[in-house]
Request: fold
Amino acid sequence: MFRPKQSLCIFALIMEYNYIAIEGTIGAGKTTLSTRIANDFNGKLVLEEFEADKNPFLPKFYKEPDKYAFQVEMTFLALRFQQLKDKLANLDLFHDFIISDYYVAKSLIFSRNNLQEDEYQLFARFFNIIFANIPKPELMVYLYLDVDHLQYNIRKRGRAYEQSITDEYLDSVQQGYFDFIKQQQNEMRILVLDTNRLDFVANEKDYRQIIEAISQPYDIGVHRITF
Reply:
């Protein structure tokens, strides 16, 4: 198990945040980073259930988005709510903090992008009822990558149903995240990390830089770091 030399200091700082959510557009590396942090620092890992067997509408959505957008978003909302309700209820004795590779607000971000206006208004009503009952992360980390890097990662991991995702779609999703971050700047601690020049999977030094950034105490607001 990798532990940086200054791990005692970093470990103590991470523990100030009992719940960390890693966010980003499709292909940003959320799951990879969340999993490694959980393994390295004894975190309770919560991974989004995005597989086609969990949401059977997802492959259909990428082929016919107008036809299946509402079904895919409602299914994701139900899955995310049930999972977070179960996982965030209590911090168990065997882990020091919780780290997730998503924040439930992404349901609203994606639905705003994918749904017709009347569908979105109906979806938002359901979302707001559910959202009030889910804890907010003490720190949300947004991994920023440009569209070219996102597409490279999408091709590299090779999920068949993702290969038809367009640059325009990724750009619109990313803009949805930017809008959300702006709206929440007085409500949450949000750390935006520009990782375009990093490879935290293959490069230990790059991974350590991200850990050091996440480990700092932040006030409520938006904080940006470019590496």
